[in-house]
Amino acid sequence: MTLRTLENRLDLCSINTATLGHRLPIEQTLDLIARAGFGYVAPWRKDMQGRTLSQLRRQLHDSGLKVNAYCRSTYIPQATRQDFDAAIADNLKAIEEAAELQAQCFVMVVGGLPAGSRDLPAARNQVAEGLALLLEHAKQHHLSLALEPLHPMYAADRSCLSTLEQALDLCELLEPGNYQHLGVAVDVYHCWWDPKLHEQIQRAGAQHRILGLHLSDWLVPTQDLLLDRGMMGDGVIDLRGIRQQVEAAGYEGAVEVEIFSRDNWWKRDEVEVLRVCAERLQRCC
To answer: Where is the Xylose isomerase-like TIM barrel domain (predicted)?
Structure first.
C-alpha cells in the first residue's frame, strides 16, 4: 500500500478529544472538530458524563463525524477480587457505550501494578483473564478491542503492556489466528523507541490487527512524562516513516492526533489547536 496523502484529506484524520484538554462541553468540542474539517473523532468516556449517548450519536451523524475509537478502559489489575470484578463490570459498560456510539474500536489501556504489589507477571495474568471476559462481550456487540501498549515508564501505574510484541502475544493467546475482534493501537509516543517496532508492525499487519494509529511527538527535553507531548513536527519522532510502515502493513483507518500538553497546547484556544493539528498532519506526517 502506498503512503496515503493527507494533503487536503483531513477527512482521513481524527482528533482525540484529549488533544483539546477536555475543557469544553463535548457537544461544542464535536462541533469544532467537524467545522475544522476532520472526518473522525476519538472521544473519552469522561467527556460523556451526564450526556445522553443517543443525542451525541445523532450529533455525530449530522456533523458527518465518525468515531474511530472510544477511550479508554478502566485498569484491569486490582488488589482484590472484588475490585477486579468491579473493573470488569465498568469495562463491560464502556463496551456497550462504544457500541452505541458506533465506535470502530474500544481502546484498552490495561493498567499496571495493583496498589502495594511488586508482582508484574501477576498483573499481566489479571489482564489476560480480564480481556478474555471482555472479548466475549465485545463480540456480542460487534466491537473491536484495541490494546494500546504504553512506554515502559508507565509499567507500574498505567500499563503492564509496554511493547507491540507483548500486546500481539496476548492477542494471539486470546484470539488465535488472524484478527476477529482483538487488535492493537500503534501510538508513536509510546513505541517510537522500540528496536523491534518495524518487525512488530509487519506482524500486526499480517494478522490484520492494526486498529489505530496515534500521532504526537517526543520533545527534547520533555518536562513531564505524561503531560508534555509535543505537536507533530516539534520533536524527534520519525512520524512519516512510522506511518509509512503502518500503512504498508495494510492499515487504512483514521490517522489520529492525541496530545497531552498541560502547559502548552491545553492552554491555547481550541480553534488554534485544531488549525495547527491540521497543518502539521499535512506537512509533517
So the answer is: 30-268
DSSP states of the chain as a string?
Answer: -PPPP-TT-GGGEEEEGGGGTT-S-HHHHHHHHHHTT-SEEE-BGGGGTT--HHHHHHHHHHHT-EE--BB-PPP---SSHHHHHHHHHHHHHHHHHHHHTT-SEEEE--B-PPTT---HHHHHHHHHHHHHHHHHHHHHTT-EEEE----GGGTTTTBS--SHHHHHHHHHHHS-SS-SSEEEEEEHHHHTT-TTHHHHHHHHHHTT-EEEEEE-B--SS-S-TTTBPBPTTSSS--HHHHHHHHHHTT--S-EEE---BTTTGGGS-HHHHHHHHHHHHHHH-
Query: 277: how many CB neighbours lie within 10 A of its CB?
Result: 25
Is the per-residue pLDDT at 18 higher than 80?
yes
Q: How far apart are CA 272 and CA 6, in angstroms?
A: 19
Q: With cut-offs at 50, 70 and 90, classify the pLDDT of residue 247.
A: very high
Handedness of CA 92, 97, 102, 105 (dihedral sign): negative
- pTM of model > 0.85: yes
User: What distance in Å separates the CA atoms of residue 102 and residue 123, rounded to the nearest whole number?
Assistant: 31
Which residue(s) pair with 217 in the sheet? 230
